Amino acid sequence: MSPPVNVEGQWPVTLVEDRVALRPLRQRDRAAWEALRRSNATWLEPWEATSPTGEPPSSFRSYVRSLDRSARAGTALPFVVELDDELVGQLTVSSITRGSFWSATIGYWVSRHVAGRGVTPLAVAMAGDHAWFEVGLHRLEINIRPENAASLRVVDKLGFRDEGVRRRFLHIQGDWRDHRSFALTAEEVPGGLVRRWREHGGTIR
Q: Among 7, 58, 148, 153, which is least packed, fewest CB within 10 Å?
């Protein structure tokens, strides 16, 4: 098993680019976070991982503490996404490993009212650049259900490679679902993803 990334002095961290910010989830975010989740329940339900054993979700307080522990242990970078100082989603760089792998997985969701406005690709680009150039990772992966057209547009805009289908990869909506896997290595984007996104006309609307 690969040891965790040494993130001493690297967490908590806040990333800011244009009108988008990535920062840690805090206990005081509870009201805004819960309201956002309620208003987007139908929008998010087809894409979010579930427990095959039917375990209930943890309390918000426990959830925040768990995210912080993972970040301080070097196994994740759990951010909320803000647009113009409004909490609009979450993005997590998870399953961080080093050893001979130096890789991680990116997962994200945003509120329906900001979907299609450039927020998600910029947030992914920001997190990717931080993971490569500050944390020192080599490879980043994003796994998406084939039916999730909005999320597929994100990886297309950022130039992630399609590495094929992973059969029955994650448990969602009561069953194991296929996902398409996309990846990039640091060598493929020497100037960073934010730069690539801007050079291809990326803007926040």
A: 58
